[in-house]
Amino acid sequence: MSQFKPEEIRTDRLDLLPLRVEHAEEMAAVLTDPGLYAFIGGAPDTAQALRARYERWVAGSPDPEESWCNWVIRLRDEACLVGTVQATVTTDGCGAVAEIAWVVGTPWQRRGIAAEAARGLVARLRQLSVHTVVAHIHPEHAASAAVATAAGLAPTDQWEDGEVRWQLGGPAGAGV
Hints:
Layout: E1 9-10, E2 14-18, H1 24-30, H2 47-59, E3 67-75, E4 80-92, E5 95-104, H3 113-127, E6 130-137, H4 142-150, E7 154-160, E8 163-169
Parallel strand pairs: 5-6
Antiparallel strand pairs: 1-2, 2-3, 3-4, 4-5, 6-8, 7-8
């Protein structure tokens, strides 16, 4: 598999910038609300812990068959980081598959930022011939379900770790 590398993605209001370790301090402030972790588990990281995580992510997957692609979301009008999007790209018998996720800091929610970022990410992945895009969403997380819908994904009847698999593309048109 050729390694996918994150490149800048521009949408109407956002710049999705490839993640850098230097983003950790600003992102620690963005991700500080414990409520962000209600559905995904965990707790806010310190800037130091986030820096260590970002160092691992930027170094890339130890599996040559898997690409870790991570971006920070920059809201151009406010010139600040507001969240992240990510894609883990692997292959199946048909080609590239991406599992995506997103998070937007609480002060910037309910403004369509996550949906716009997810749409931009999915559009780029499809340009790169990713045939299936997947997200796993807690069944009670209506906001993430709305983001997935906006990005073209649809729920399937498959579950993993208490979350519903949402999908765009793939075998037998699942999730299309």
